[in-house]
Amino acid sequence: MPDTTVTPKGRTDTTTPEQTRGGPYFVPRVDIYETDKELTLYADLPGVRCEDVDLRYEGGELILHGHVAPRHEGRNFLLNEYEVGDFYRAFTIHESIDSNKIAAECKNGVVIVHLPKVAQAQPRQITVQAK
User: Which single residue of 57, 64, 79, 121 could bond 117 by disulfide (Cβ 3.0 to 4.6 Å)?
Assistant: First the structure.
């Protein structure tokens, strides 16, 4: 039986962002873990210096951009597998995160972002009274 799947013309995949930057860019790999008090995001940005990381919170999104400076320009390589390009990734942040207390650090090509929860979203222990 022939495939009868119809793909509408002019329709784009809405799950991938539009590319608006010149040159290649990469999506950094991340690990995110949760504790009672915060979410912690680890983003791998190899080749990015800490001063070249741009981290912003805007309109409910955490936007991570890392600029990689070209290296070894003008050399004749025998083998060149490392591609240079910027890193970009955006995350939708839930309202349970206190956006005023977001903090970040950078060490050895890894950006660590601390996303503290608002007090109302943190679990609390309730004492059960014996009567």
Answer: 121
**Residue 106 in domain:** yes
Q: Is 34 helix (H, G, I), strand (E, B) or coil?
A: strand
Global pTM reads: 0.73
Buried b or exposed e, range 60-94, using 16+ CB within 10 angstroms: eebebbbbbeeeeeeeeeeeeeeeeebbbbebebe
- The answer as to whether 46 is a domain residue is yes
Q: Are 117 and 38 in contact (CB under 8 A)?
A: yes
Structure tokens at 45: 């940005």
- Give the torsion through C-alpha atoms of 40, 42, 48, 52, to 10 deg: -10
Amino acid letter, residue 92 = T
| Number of structural domains in the chain | 1
**φ/ψ (deg, to 5) at 5:** -70, 130
